[in-house]
Amino acid sequence: MAVKIKTNDKHIQALAEIVGSPRLILFHQEDLIAYDCDGFTLHKHLPKAVVFPKDTQEVSRLVRYCSDNDLPFLARGAGTGLSGGAIPVNGEVIISLVKMKRLLSVDFENRRAVVEPGYVNLKLTNSISDKGYYYAPDPSSQYCCTIGGNVAENAGGAHCLKYGVTTNHILGLEVVLPNGDIIDIGQNGIQDAPGYDLLGLLTGSEGTLGIVTKITVRILKNPEAKQTVLAYFDKVIDGSQAVSDIISAGIVPAALEMMDKTAIEGVEAAAFPVGHPKDIEAVLLIEVDGISAGIEEQINQILEVCKNRNVREVRAARDEQERGRWWANRKTGFGAMGAISADYLVQDGVIPRSKLPEVLSRINKISEESGLRIANIFHAGDGNLHPLVLFDARIPGQSEKALAAGSACLQVCADVGGTITGEHGVGIEKKEEMRFVFNDEEIIAQTNVRDVFNTKNLLNAGKLFPSPGRCVEIKKEMKAAAAQ
Amino acid sequence: MAVKIKTNDKHIQALAEIVGSPRLILFHQEDLIAYDCDGFTLHKHLPKAVVFPKDTQEVSRLVRYCSDNDLPFLARGAGTGLSGGAIPVNGEVIISLVKMKRLLSVDFENRRAVVEPGYVNLKLTNSISDKGYYYAPDPSSQYCCTIGGNVAENAGGAHCLKYGVTTNHILGLEVVLPNGDIIDIGQNGIQDAPGYDLLGLLTGSEGTLGIVTKITVRILKNPEAKQTVLAYFDKVIDGSQAVSDIISAGIVPAALEMMDKTAIEGVEAAAFPVGHPKDIEAVLLIEVDGISAGIEEQINQILEVCKNRNVREVRAARDEQERGRWWANRKTGFGAMGAISADYLVQDGVIPRSKLPEVLSRINKISEESGLRIANIFHAGDGNLHPLVLFDARIPGQSEKALAAGSACLQVCADVGGTITGEHGVGIEKKEEMRFVFNDEEIIAQTNVRDVFNTKNLLNAGKLFPSPGRCVEIKKEMKAAAAQ
């Protein structure tokens, strides 16, 4: 049965036939504009078309069609990614997974749930919280981002300090490979399943190795109790030292967040102000959770540590409402920058915790030299830093300056033994910065892996790895040597 | 400067030159016999030679020599592996890493240590315990197995229920690739490092993708307190149900071990008897750790759960001595089978926790049908089962019967949604059983990955994957299709 759409493009017609309805394909320019970028907005490209498959078989048929006809293609969830991983830089066919959004099953006894990739992160916790369970990875966009996208980017969140990032919560995946084959990987959560860890390999591969169509996740029992502490420091060095002291005391907080002066200015000017003083250099938000009996002791230890580090004011949340307000203030921190700046660029570096003071002072220097303000919001407990470069795209040259300042921040992270992304991925944004942390041989080891999955490199090409440079020659030499 | 050894074999001479001393190479048959198998003793093969490099550069030069001259080779640690991963089935050159056994550095502030691959697991904890730290993965062989071998097998242990297996504690690796190139992977412990997760891929790849020459591991702060409970159950069904109840109560024990009646008979006849009653069907050993304030509450909950499940006797350890005796009794459980049987075969399956009673009863049936006793010792908390098939190799046909019974146990695990290995690896022992859990496409996806690293398949060939069967044809078809 032919799907009736107005097009002379045989590929568009064929793709429409696969999804079976004119309402499940977009190909007019005015419809495609909404898909020309994701959460990283500094590059825009139109896709060839956007298709909305309803199940794994349709994804497989779409992929096989694209592969057989040499059409570039990529998968997209909610489009909240911050590094441009879903931008169709080659005019890709976008396979949108938003129609595959069911919660397929929950197995409380073995603590697993199975979801489709378009299922929204926060919905899972909402669906199981009445039984006392939740899903741990909590990116700030969790109210709208999809679990499929979280898998692609190996998303983190404030509570990953204690509970780990997405990869620590994925137990199994159904994947459509770039040739259309469907495989199951991960053996449903067995810690050390036989064979290679393809589950770990696919998770965080930024949509370059396959398209995930079903996800088995771990669900956790709600902690019996949780409590949050807020601490204001006049000096950032004292706040940083308190972070180290808390960890050294053997406490593993569920979350340990820091914001600096500029970030505080932003969050206090935006939707959820809570009255942070504007003259302090650092605020810490520290949450502990677990069995009730242990919480108070840990809170007391944390208060003690902060007092020993010249804290101006420190206290635990009075009630759940106050705790909720503090978190809303923090979780909307990126967007809050819009209240004090026309535009902002979020960066995402990682450093050893012990280097915090040094890195912050070097970022200050970058800010001074570029003439752009840089706010810092970060998951201090695990050293994941988010410098927010504030700029105004309407002023000629400022976008470029902001990108350069962001890149310089990442160079600082790499210099002190850290790396260029903690949770936002590389995408197109940080491709060239991969060279800050990998040499040619190391990049080749990775692109070789991509090439065995993504044989024709039609799936999300041009992402994640730097432009080849010397790698191409080295690969040729290696092939010649192997052929001897 | 030529190394003087008595050989006409130019390859042996060349390998000796690389390690630089006649004392660092073995090639006489009487010396090689010690290397004809590892902890899996049912297959034996002599290596061509055994070499003992002192550093990464020597490993690289040995590997390059083997690769250039088409000599099969493999790496070996302490040889405690239980699935035959270090057996030279192709007459390999064995690259023994036991001389590379240094603790290179410890960074308490950022909680990392760097070791060479031949460093013994337990030595690490012993070296840092005075500062209040330890290394979590604790395979029963930890007093002699090497961390390099742990990485190859992604080793587990009793405390992996709470703390995860080896892969959760590896932060970075230096790896010699099968062509001799040296790469660094893992970015030193950043949770979500950019690029593909090669660290996860290499960990547990059973020595088929590269040779690890340096390892950065996570170290943990000692828990403030720990306590262990012992519980005797007349009926295994009650013990199993208690396991589920403890987890459902939201407690995450550090360890949750079970032994059945035959296993108890063994451990009570061996070196560390503790007086377990012999007429019970199950003993549970349950350990909790964490901050002091919470321990007592958890112990009380556990006692309560056991009482609700008809426990015959349950109590917490009186003191550290008693706790130590209980663990010595459990940790020597495999070897203890030697006290009640001439030979034994350890199997290693994984099942969903909820299937415990069903699986145990099916294993009993396998035991009856084969006429061989089967003891069960297992990490009950994470469903990792170790059926120990007791047999006498001197009786013709019994070895084969034992292998068949072991394989049948794994088929049961696969049938209920589990898998064929939890921590011992596949090696040569369970190659064919891989088909219980992977179809052709899934095996091909894995061997394709192997082939990009191990291009000539000289490194530890013939391990981990089943004999090709239909995979060869499928691969040919795929290649032909890709070439079109």
From TrEMBL, chains A, B:
Residues 43-222 form the FAD-binding PCMH-type domain. It holds the Pfam family FAD-oxidase_C. PROSITE patterns: FAD_PCMH. SUPFAM superfamilies: FAD-binding/transporter-associated domain-like, FAD-linked oxidases, C-terminal domain. One of its GO terms (molecular function) is FAD binding. The keyword Flavoprotein applies. Keywords: FAD, Flavoprotein, Oxidoreductase. This is FAD-binding protein.
